[in-house]
Structure prediction request, 348 residues.
Amino acid sequence: MISMNKENDILILGIESSCDDTSASVIKNGYLLSNIIAGQKVHEAYGGVVPELASRAHQQNIVPVVDQALKQAGVLPEEITAIAFTRGPGLLGSLLVGTSFAKGFSLATGAPMIDINHLQAHVLAHFIQEYNTPYDPPKFPFLCLLVSGGNSQIIVVKDYLDMEVLGQTIDDAAGEAFDKCAKVMGLPYPGGPFVDRLAKEGNPDAFKFSKPRIPNFDYSFSGLKTSFLYYLRDQLKENENFIEERKADLCASLQKTIIDILLDKLVKAAKETGIREITVAGGVSANSGLREALMQTAVKYRWKMHIPKFAFTTDNAAMIAITGYFKYQKGEFTGMDAVPFARMDIRV
Prediction:
């Protein structure tokens, strides 16, 4: 391989292993060179991620994924300026694999380590630059609706590494509500994309489900799940084919309810803060219904709406690398005593 590195270039290798996707990415001076992701099909048979199986799969995937990311970027390991890795939140066994690899890479190459908060990285995915692609990042301060399988939060982003959570779920996250309700309907895992697909064929006003009344900007989705489950149970007593006969309408109505809950609080936060620069991030931001609803709401309230590319919605190392790039510029490094955390506040 021919070295293309220049002395003043900042090359960040990002490592993401918080859940069931092993990913590696290389960013050069803020521009994306590679973003490799290896998924794990093994969990589909169990209807959810099995932590022990996830960590084993990470151990198998991480070396070839990093090797491919470096080769695609045209970069040698010794040219890496710093290695950024997800420290948390996430599954401990999975995080340990990424953390251990980062330590080994750092010892072998001398590249310093940068620990990354997974939630911050989702927010900063909006700042990933790609060659020959228009770049229109949000301007500070902006609001971010962070929605994924494990998190539902409204965040005020004051600077790259200065964020404040205005509200968050007090129980289940929006992505979890999608997946668990999908499982009740017999849809494959992960259920969210299947609900999204079927919702396009259904009537979003066919059924009404519970919308919680939670104060301030916090969310709750456990009541919706219970409402959905009990409604199906009662209908199945009358008609054992109810789910199959009305699956598209059920998906459309469920999706509309979740989106309504998310946007009600986001609109409230935008009004109270006076911020009209709005972003969305996290796995659920790939949902087509949510994207359409956000764009319609943006027109209504005259927001400047920023929606990420599909490739940067789910867990990926590009968002880890770009966050590492900003932390590198501030000189924020971590040592060999770094340990992963299953739970982390976004400000940590």
In short: The chain has two domains: 11-133+313-329, 142-308. The CA atoms of residues 184 and 229 lie 7 Å apart. Residues 1-5 have pLDDT under 50 and may be disordered. The chain is about 40% helix and 20% strand.
